[in-house]
């Protein structure tokens, strides 16, 4: 019998599949008992990203993001009133969902529409958003928090940022001065992070592999970044092939 909770989770999964097909696929590759945690976490991340860009007025966008910060922090004390996302999130994570408030806090930068001054600021943003998200997801699949998770998350988040940079520049969320050497620095930081994660891969259980998928054609993206150019878009065939390899081999590291 389908419950209201199952229906709510199913609706979130459908929306995530449309908004973030890679992370939807990663959740589907996880062990069934852990899927609600990944689906709700990834759906929250997609909603936070959307909310930060939901208004042209930075003040209004910031107020909307702050609403999420406050609601997530409140989960530490009590379950939320009925809500299409917070209710499934609470069902999957309980009071632990309050730990996701910093993910919302980091999106205040997006709401402010302020470009980054240099590579160091981009790395800090990547650590607070994509890297932290990956660490939460991997821990939900049995990995212990540590340097390997944070390094893989940093590398994946930086590559995602490099790929999105052309669109981000138009939104005033890219680099204040998009110099080629800045892109080279980000690519070098991502490469070093991936190497660090790979060196510690034996500490990560295979069950956590779906949460650590960095995306398709990562080496091509890093090569482009090293040349000081933006990575090319990834084809649907390449994306699906990379996910299939992950499912078959469990190899998440470069």
Automatic annotation (TrEMBL):
It comes from the Bacteria. Pfam families: SQS_PSY (PF00494). It comes from Paracoccus alkenifer. This is Squalene/phytoene synthase. Gene3D superfamilies: Farnesyl Diphosphate Synthase.
């Amino acid at each position: 019998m389908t419950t209201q909770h199952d229906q709510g989770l199913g609706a979130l999964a459908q929306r995530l599949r449309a908004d973030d097909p890679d992370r939807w696929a990663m959740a589907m590759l996880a062990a069934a008992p852990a899927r609600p945690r990944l689906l709700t976490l990834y759906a929250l991340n997609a909603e936070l990203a959307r909310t930060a860009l939901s208004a042209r007025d930075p003040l209004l966008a910031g107020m909307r993001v702050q609403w999420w910060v406050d609601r997530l922090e409140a989960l530490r004390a009590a379950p939320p009133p009925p809500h299409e996302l917070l209710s499934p999130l609470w069902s999957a994570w309980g009071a632990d969902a309050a730990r996701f408030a910093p993910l919302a806090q980091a999106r205040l930068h997006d709401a402010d529409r302020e470009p980054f001054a240099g590579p160091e600021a981009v790395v800090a943003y990547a650590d607070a958003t994509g890297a932290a998200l990956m660490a939460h997801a991997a821990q939900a699949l049995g990995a212990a928090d540590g340097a390997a998770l944070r390094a893989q998350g940093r590398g994946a988040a930086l590559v995602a940022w490099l790929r999105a940079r052309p669109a981000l520049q138009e939104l005033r969320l890219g680099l204040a001065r998009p110099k080629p050497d800045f892109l080279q620095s980000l690519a070098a930081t991502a490469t070093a992070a991936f190497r660090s994660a790979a060196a510690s891969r034996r500490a990560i259980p295979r069950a956590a592999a779906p949460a650590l998928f960095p995306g398709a054609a990562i080496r091509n993206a890093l090569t482009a970044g090293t040349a000081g150019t933006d990575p090319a878009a990834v084809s649907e065939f390449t994306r699906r092939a990379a996910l299939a390899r992950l499912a078959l081999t469990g190899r998440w590291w470069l």
